[in-house]
Structure formats: structure tokens, C-alpha cells
């Protein structure tokens, strides 16, 4: 290896700079795309979401057109998101747990000891990427799925009731879900733990509470994060109990905000 | 300049750092020396705000690290070689760090060259050897061209050439007027690198002095004498106030020098076969000083006492 020749610090000083929020965002952006798991997560979201939506539309289009199923057509047009959301949870978890698992968190906090700034930067990058990925996934799913629906004469145009909102809503729901996983990551610090807990909450608990009797079961069903938040991502729903799209999303956003706040408090106080 | 005052860190019941105060001055390499578990790493983590002190303060050039507008330009730290994501390339690791503190991208290539990693900069660091990881960690520490450099066990995992490289690097950085704090559990290494030593054991400062003073004070020496009449010579020496340990025909004498020993022997008409001064190694001095403060001591068979 070469002998060290140090650049003289006094003769060629670096231009001035500070660890500002925009720079923290830039740093998180570089971090996100310089590990393979991020690209794979986003690719998996698009492939799963758009692919499964197209597939399910292709399979059910003839029956739907014949009116044999009794299901609303609009409930199928973003159907793949049901599975694609797993990737949002994984990506959201990795943004934090990937750093705790490897010890990277120390490098991150040495580079910027203002932990609030670090957290905001992580959230901004994660939410932006997932929003765009969610919208693109839903749009591609609509393109693919609608081709089959249109062929049967039951196509949904972008101008139809709730369709445009569902595309944007897919992005919003993915971003929110990613932030939920990120918040859980701040508390649990382990990828496996976060992914299992968040997926159990969204898939398992969200469906189990439907079995509870009476108003309690109904309201718990309405308020569970996955149920409240996902309604905005679809023009129509299989589940008549759910809250309306925007009120549901407001509930979901509030839940995410609370968990993020708790995660932030723990993160600000904990030794790295 | 790093100033720690009354720095204390408790983890539950365990006191990792116990009221530590010291000053690390610019222009010198200060060695931070102590057995494993003595509290070196905890102290260094508190310097850059990763761990919050239970009480006490530590400042870098008069300010808390967290208040520095561009921290990487204030302090460069190598805390653990493996504070890296294994899936990221060396270059990407330095790039995000540079971006976070507004350091030009060109500086990334500069430090990669400085530590000799240009040729592997595009490789994922998960495939790096321990030594390459250390070099990358040092590159990261130098990225912001900081006036203060903190290196925790930098020679771990390095080959002899790498060890010499780190030694030269630390001295060069100090010669440029920077404040350099280097930790190690190896006394011999520190004796070669550091001008000043802060020795800690069980979270307390045991010594804070120049390396030369430390050696003079703690590297104990004794007079070694071989004589066919050890009993008689031991008696003479003891009478003049020396401590004597006999081992066959050999005496180990402390409290008098070689001249006095020789003269006493001559006065008593005793024959000497050998007379000399034995200086114990620095490593031994360090072991003696920290003997009571080793956290995980192996059970030794009774050692030869002096």
C-alpha cells in the first residue's frame, strides 16, 4: 500500500459547509440507493403490485362482466397492492434496522449528531420514494388490468369516480406504511421483528378484529392501520365496513404520526 | 483540543467511566491506554455524542460535538471498523458521509488514495478484510480534514506494515498541528506512537503524563547480581536498606544502584560473577499499573515477585 501523504490542511482548506437538513436528505438518498435491498424492494413492489393486479383482472374480467360474482369491479383495479405493501414495510424497516443491524447508525450519528434532522431526512426520503413507487405501481396495474376489463366492456377510465384518487392514494398508503415500519424500527431495531410485527398488525390483527362481535369489532376493524389506510388506494372495496377513503387515511396518518413520535423520542434519548 | 471533565457513564449498576478528566492537546499524539473494558471506547463515544454522559462534560475545541455546524469537519473519528453497511461500496460509504457535511466529492477520491484503497473503492465493504475496513474507517475520519482526530484501536487487524502506517499517520497528523487521540490496549505500540499518555483502568484515570515520564516512573528496574556467596551479599545489601530477592546464585536488588552494589561487595571482599541493571519492559509497567483494574483477568500462577 502507498505511504501516506497528507493534504496540507492549512493551504487547501475545504469550502465551508454545514450538516444541514437538505444535506442530510442528500446523504440518505445516496445511502438508500447504494445498497441492493432498496432497489430490489422497489422493483418487487412494482412487479408484485402491477403484476398481480393485471393477473387478477385477467382472471376475473369475464365473470365480472357476466355479473356472476357480485363483486365491485373497482375493488380489483389496485388489488395487487395488497401484496405489494409487504415491500413497503420491508423498505421502511430497513431504513432504520439496516443501520442498527450493521453498526452503521454510529457512522450516521457521527456525521450528523442532530438526531432530529437525521430522522426527518430518513422520513422524507423514504416517504417520497414509496409515494412515487406506489403511484407508479398502481398506474401500471391499472394499465395492465384495465386492458382485460375493457376487453369485457367493464373498463375503468382515469376519470371514473375515485380512480385518480386511488392512484395517488396508493402512493400515500405505501408512504404511510413505510413510515409506520420505520417508526417500529426505531423501537425494535431488528428487521425480522419489525417486519413480522407490522405485517401481523396489518394482515392478521386487522382481519381478526372483524370477528369480534358488535360495534366493538366494527370500530376496531375501521381503525386498524391497514384497514383505515388502504381504503384510499382503491376506488371500491370488498369490505363495506371500512371508513371512507379520506377519513380513513386521516386516522391512519394519525396512527403513523403517533408511533413516529414515540419512536423519535426513544431514538433521541438512546445511546447509539 | 479535547477536554473531558468529570465524565461519568453508568449502564445500570455498572460504572463504565467513573469521573474521568483529561485534556488532549493539539500538536501531539495522545495515547489513550487501558486494558479491554477499561472504558476507552465508551469515553470516545461520548466525545462524539453517540453515548450521553451520565454526568460530566466533554468538549471539542470548546464546544459540544453535537453543536458543531459541520461535525465531520470538526472531529474525524474511527470508532469501529465495522460501523459500515456490508452491502455498500467503500466509495458510496464515503460519498454519503461527504454529502451530509457538504464536503466536495473530490475529497472522497483524495482520502481513498490517502489510505491506499483506490483500487477496491468500487467493492462492497462486506468483502473487505479487517485491515481494509480499518483503512476505510481512517479514510472516513480524515474526510472532513478535521483539526481533531480520534482513533479507537486503529491498528486492530492491521499487518505490521499497516501498523507502521497508522503510527506514521498519527504522528504526521499531530505534526500538522492537529489534536490526535489514539486508543490502544497495547503499551508497546503506544510507546512508539504517543507523546502523551492517558492511562485508564476500570473507568478511572490512572496516569496522565508524557510517555517519557510514564516510562521513567513506572518501568521499574532492578540490579541483577550473580555471586558464589549470595547469602552474604544479600545480608550486606539488606543492611544498607535495599530489597533483595534471591534466586539460586542470583540476587535481584531494588533500592540501591549498581555502583553501591559493587562497592558493597568489594568492601565485603565478595566475588561477583555478574552485575547489571535490568529495566522491565513497558508492557510490564503497564500491567503492574493496571493490574488491579483489569475487568476480565485470567487466573495467573503466582508470578515472580521482586
TrEMBL record, chain A:
GO molecular function: ABC-type transporter activity
Keyword Transmembrane recorded: yes
Regions that span the bilayer: 40-61, 73-98, 119-143, 163-187, 194-216, 246-268
UniProt entry keywords in alphabetical sequence: Membrane, Transmembrane, Transmembrane helix
Gene Ontology annotations for the cellular component aspect, listed alphabetically: plasma membrane
Keyword Transmembrane helix included in the entry's annotation: yes
Protein name per Swiss-Prot or TrEMBL: ABC-2 type transport system permease protein
Source lineage: Bacteria, Bacillati, Actinomycetota, Actinomycetes, Geodermatophilales
UniProtKB/TrEMBL annotation, chain B:
Protein name (record): ABC-2 type transport system ATP-binding protein
Superkingdom of origin: Bacteria
InterPro entries xrefs: AAA+_ATPase, ABC_transporter-like_ATP-bd, P-loop_NTPase
Family listed: Belongs to the ABC transporter superfamily.
SMART domains xref list: AAA
PANTHER family, sorted: ABC TRANSPORTER, ATP-BINDING PROTEIN
GO molecular function, a single term: ATP hydrolysis activity
Species of provenance: Geodermatophilus obscurus
Domain ABC transporter: 2-227
Keywords: ATP-binding, Nucleotide-binding, Transport
Amino acid at each position: 500500500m502507498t505511504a501516506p501523504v497528507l493534504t496540507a490542511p492549512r493551504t487547501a482548506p475545504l469550502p465551508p459547509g454545514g450538516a444541514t437538513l437538505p444535506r442530510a436528505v442528500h446523504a440518505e438518498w445516496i445511502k438508500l440507493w447504494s445498497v441492493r435491498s432498496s432497489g430490489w424492494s422497489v422493483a418487487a413492489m412494482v412487479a408484485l403490485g402491477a403484476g398481480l393486479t393485471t393477473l387478477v383482472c385477467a382472471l376475473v374480467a369475464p365473470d365480472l362482466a357476466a355479473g356472476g360474482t357480485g363483486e365491485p369491479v373497482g375493488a380489483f383495479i389496485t388489488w395487487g397492492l395488497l401484496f405489494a405493501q409487504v415491500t413497503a414495510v420491508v423498505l421502511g424497516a430497513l431504513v432504520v434496522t439496516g443501520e442498527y443491524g450493521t453498526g452503521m447508525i454510529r457512522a450516521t450519528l457521527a456525521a450528523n449528531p442532530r438526531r432530529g434532522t437525521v430522522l426527518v431526512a430518513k422520513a422524507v426520503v423514504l416517504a417520497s420514494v414509496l409515494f412515487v413507487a406506489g403511484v407508479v405501481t398502481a398506474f401500471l396495474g391499472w394499465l395492465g388490468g384495465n386492458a382485460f376489463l375493457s376487453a369485457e366492456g367493464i373498463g375503468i377510465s382515469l376519470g371514473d369516480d375515485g380512480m385518480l384518487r386511488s392512484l395517488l392514494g396508493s402512493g400515500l398508503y405505501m408512504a404511510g406504511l413505510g413510515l409506520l415500519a420505520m417508526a417500529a424500527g426505531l423501537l425494535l431495531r431488528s428487521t425480522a421483528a419489525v417486519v413480522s410485527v407490522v405485517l401481523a398488525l396489518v394482515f392478521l390483527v386487522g382481519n381478526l378484529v372483524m370477528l369480534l362481535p358488535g360495534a366493538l369489532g366494527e370500530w376496531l376493524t375501521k381503525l386498524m392501520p391497514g384497514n383505515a389506510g388502504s381504503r384510499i388506494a382503491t376506488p371500491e372495496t370488498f369490505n363495506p365496513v371500512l371508513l371512507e377513503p379520506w377519513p380513513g387515511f386521516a386516522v391512519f396518518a394519525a396512527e403513523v404520526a403517533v408511533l413516529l413520535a414515540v419512536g423519535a423520542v426513544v431514538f433521541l434519548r438512546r445511546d447509539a | 483540543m479535547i477536554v473531558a471533565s468529570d465524565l461519568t457513564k453508568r449502564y445500570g449498576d455498572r460504572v463504565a467511566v467513573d469521573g474521568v478528566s483529561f485534556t488532549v492537546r493539539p500538536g501531539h499524539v495522545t495515547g489513550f491506554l487501558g486494558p479491554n473494558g477499561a472504558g476507552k471506547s465508551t469515553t470516545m463515544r461520548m466525545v462524539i455524542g453517540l453515548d450521553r454522559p451520565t454526568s460530566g462534560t466533554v468538549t471539542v475545541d470548546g464546544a459540544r460535538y453535537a453543536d458543531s455546524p459541520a461535525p465531520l469537519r470538526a472531529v474525524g473519528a474511527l470508532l469501529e471498523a465495522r460501523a459500515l453497511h456490508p452491502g455498500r461500496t467503500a466509495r458510496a460509504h464515503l460519498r454519503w458521509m461527504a454529502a451530509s457535511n457538504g464536503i466536495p466529492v473530490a475529497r472522497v477520491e483524495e482520502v481513498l488514495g490517502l489510505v491506499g484503497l483506490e483500487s477496491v473503492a468500487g467493492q462492497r465493504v462486506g468483502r473487505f478484510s479487517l485491515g481494509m475496513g480499518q483503512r476505510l474507517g481512517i479514510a472516513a475520519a480524515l474526510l472532513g480534514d478535521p483539526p481533531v482526530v480520534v482513533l479507537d484501536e486503529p491498528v486492530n487487524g492491521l499487518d505490521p506494515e499497516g501498523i507502521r502506517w497508522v503510527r506514521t499517520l498519527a504522528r504526521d497528523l499531530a505534526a500538522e498541528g492537529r489534536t490526535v487521540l489514539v486508543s490502544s490496549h497495547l503499551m508497546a505500540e503506544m510507546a512508539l506512537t504517543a507523546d502523551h499518555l492517558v492511562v485508564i483502568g476500570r473507568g478511572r484515570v490512572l496516569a496522565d503524563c508524557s510517555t517519557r515520564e510514564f516510562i521513567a516512573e513506572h518501568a521499574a528496574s532492578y540490579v541483577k547480581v550473580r555471586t558464589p556467596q549470595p547469602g552474604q551479599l544479600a545480608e550486606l545489601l539488606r543492611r544498607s536498606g535495599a530489597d533483595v530477592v534471591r534466586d539460586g546464585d542470583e540476587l535481584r536488588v531494588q533500592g540501591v544502584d549498581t555502583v553501591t552494589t559493587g562497592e558493597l561487595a568489594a568492601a565485603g571482599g565478595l566475588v561477583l560473577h555478574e552485575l547489571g541493571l535490568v529495566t522491565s519492559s513497558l508492557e510490564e509497567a503497564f500491567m503492574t499499573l493496571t493490574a488491579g483494574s483489569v475487568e476480565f483477568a485470567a487466573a495467573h500462577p503466582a508470578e515472580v515477585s521482586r
